[in-house]
Amino acid sequence: MWPSDPPPLTARSVLASALLGEDPPELPVSHLVQLARLFGINDNRARDALSRMAVAGEVVTDGSGRYRLAGHLVDRMERQAVSRRGDTADWDGRWNIAVITATGRAAEVRQARRRRLVAARLAERREGLWLRPANIELLPDPAEEPDLDLFVGTPDGSSRALAAELWDLDGWARTAAQLRGRLADLPPAGPEQLVPGFVLSAAVIRHLQVDPLLPHELLPDDWPGSELRSAYDRWDRRYREVLRQWGRRTREGTTSNSGGPRVDLPGDGRAPGDG
């Protein structure tokens, strides 16, 4: 059972996730199209999604048949790398405090700002007041936000109690344990694991991105962040090797003309809606 329902895999999400998993984040269009076929996404839909991503500035191509991440997806890749590493700095007890100084903005402006503050791992104490321990670099940088002032301070009460109030640490730990179990239950061994493994990988990355990366002084004693990261790193190395082997066989023409070892999607097997 999934810890939470994963979002549907659209053509865009499959292609973006494939590129996000590469270093450098670049793949031949033929590989991207063949990968999309595994998810029931036909060639026209895959190529149309790539074209729309290029228009949106999310990918670029050099004209040689290769696509590379660009724009905000590069920033997302950097945030994913930070989430996977889980790096934190020594903590001196201070907190970063962000105060929104203007009201009356349009709803879409407020929602976009909220998403950026959440991505920076700040938590909302009350409306207009966001904070977190000053033990990580804030990305994206709230200092670039209009109508927002930044301060550094120390709470009068218990920082540990404040952290437990701001973040659902028990809930995060439970989901991390479930994901570790899923990783153990789905060892990548062949192309039949590519689709379910793709979905599982995305779920782990999403969960690591909502790890608040708190100082160890504020975490429960049995915090599972390091264990989940280690388990996922081992699993992902094997998954990437299976994916490379599949891609190599596909390029060498050892798979069928329909795109190789097709893996049925969970459920009724229908392709997800385009994105």
SSE blueprint and pairings:
Layout: H1 11-20, E1 26-28, H2 29-38, H3 43-55, E2 59-61, E3 66-69, H4 72-85, E4 95-100, H5 107-119, E5 123-126, E6 129-133, E7 148-153, H6 159-166, H7 169-185, H8 194-209, H9 225-251
Detailed description of the structure:
The chain has nine helices and seven strands, in the order αβααββαβαβββαααα. It is an alpha+beta fold. The protein folds into three domains: about 10-80, Orthogonal Bundle (Arc Repressor Mutant, subunit A), CATH 1.10.10.10; about 95-155; about 170-250, Methane Monooxygenase Hydroxylase, Chain G, domain 1, CATH 1.20.58.1460. Strands 5-6-4-7 form a four-stranded antiparallel sheet, with no helix packed on it. It has a three-stranded antiparallel sheet with strand order 1-3-2. A hairpin with a 2-residue loop joins strand 5 (about 125) and strand 6. The radius of gyration is 21 Å and the shape is globular.
> What structural class do helix, strand and pairing data support?
alpha+beta
The count of strands amounts to: 7
Shape: globular
Mean pLDDT, to the nearest integer, reads 88
Could you give the order of strands across the largest sheet?
5-6-4-7
State the CATH architecture of the largest domain.
Answer: Up-down Bundle
Count of helical stretches = 9
Radius of gyration: 21 Å
N-to-C order of helices and strands: HEHHEEHEHEEEHHHH
CATH class of the largest domain: Mainly Alpha
Number of domains: 3
Share of helix among residues? 40-55%
Largest pleated sheet:
4 strands, antiparallel
What's the CATH topology name of the largest domain? Methane Monooxygenase Hydroxylase, Chain G, domain 1
Q: Which percent band covers the strand fraction?
A: 5-15%
Q: How far apart lie the N and C ends?
A: 26 Å
Poorly predicted residue ranges: 254-275
